[in-house]
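Same chain as my last thread, 329 residues:
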Amino acid sequence: MDKIIGMGNALVDVLATLTDDALLQEMELPKGSMQLIDESKLKTINEHFSKMHTYLATGGSAGNTILGLACMGASTGFIGKTGTDSYGKFYRDNLEKHKIEDKTQIDPQLPSGVASTFISPDGERTFGTYLGAAATLKAEDLSPDLFEGYTYLYIEGYLVQDHDMILRTIELAKEAGLQVCLDLASYNIVEGDLDFFKLLIDKYVDILFANEEEAKAFTGKEGEEALDILAQMCSIAIIKAGSKGSYIRRETEEIKVDAIPVNKVVDTTGAGDYFAAGFLYGLAGGYSLEKCAKTGAILAGNVIQCIGANIPEEKWEEIRLNISEMLSE
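reply #2:
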């Protein structure tokens, strides 16, 4: 099976379940969005969290995808940056535990990145993200050897704040013969840097993941029209449509795959990331687009029944068995 390396903000998620959305308004965090916050806002959030039950998990969009792939048994690696603090150690220990090749770097000055994650009663999640050390990965930190032996590079759109670094990463990956996969990350990120995203996708990206809001922010269109535009710019375009499933286009081939039915949505954190993990697992194994999307649907359907983007270990055996049966059909 082909090897996949991810690159993204190395974040630790601190998750709290809300009884209502009043705290989001107080914190000026639009429901369903990812907002970057400064240290003072992080301090205020932590004061609220200190009075609530919180849960710790490794996070970051690309990190979640790579973790999902590793739990499926794929060969993976991760490039990111953490601090020297306990959150950084927690993050790196998790890479080691899941046999993910650790290509992270350490910033001795800044604290590790933290995503304060608010889970609304309907399962929608809102992030107040303090990037810290995660945002200090620079173009000059990268070298060709990071990409040796890999077939796919998976990048999260949240890295878009550093154009030079993303371009350098893609340049090195392309020189090493890798296919580039990009997830658009969040509708407000896309709106804020539309021209650069257009350049990336048109010129470099082979496989593109977007949810409906991100696809609309990028194309100005919805549904089929959005998929048409995206598919003309890259080899494979995927629109993740939540409970409606997913839509995939590769040249003239178009498929729709339903989401798996679930009893209760607990937390949608990581749903898109795990869909991408399943899709790439299928792709790396040489399966059809339909089987790739079905694998993605199984992983996404399982992660939304857990708090945070970490599926409990006892669930993985059953998941791997279900996917193996579906792939062998």
